[in-house]
Design the sequence.
């Protein structure tokens, strides 16, 4: 996993890093085609580390990334955080998730699993 990234949301510095779950990373990035704003909110909630993290839980949203993202955005805006800062930080978090979709070790595992094709001369 990449080193954590720090972003500014209002007066708060927030540390972001990708969640360990490959499934969560895939679900959130796939949701962007339906609603990029909500997927940015979901990415922000999933990547947020430390103090001030939104109280809403991904599991509490029945693992629905769009619902989760909307609730993350609503909670942060209700706290008084500027929506522009929330969406900008969400975009950065989304980039972190996208970059972490397939780790080098996963690529190596797949390469080791694939059988080489036999050379056929016909």
Sequence:
């Amino acid at each position: 996993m990449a080193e954590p990234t720090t972003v500014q949301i209002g007066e708060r510095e927030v540390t972001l890093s990708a969640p360990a779950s490959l499934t969560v990373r895939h679900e959130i990035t796939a949701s962007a085609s339906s609603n990029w704003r909500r997927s940015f909110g979901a990415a922000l909630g999933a990547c947020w580390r430390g103090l001030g993290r939104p109280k809403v839980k991904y599991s509490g949203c029945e693992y629905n990334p769009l619902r989760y993202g909307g609730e993350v955005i609503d909670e942060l805006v209700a706290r008084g955080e500027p929506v522009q800062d929330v969406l900008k930080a969400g975009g950065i978090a989304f980039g972190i998730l996208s970059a972490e979709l397939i780790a080098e070790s996963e690529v190596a595992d797949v390469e080791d699993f694939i059988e080489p094709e036999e050379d056929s001369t016909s």
In short: The chain has one domain: 5-113. Residues 5-113 form one domain.
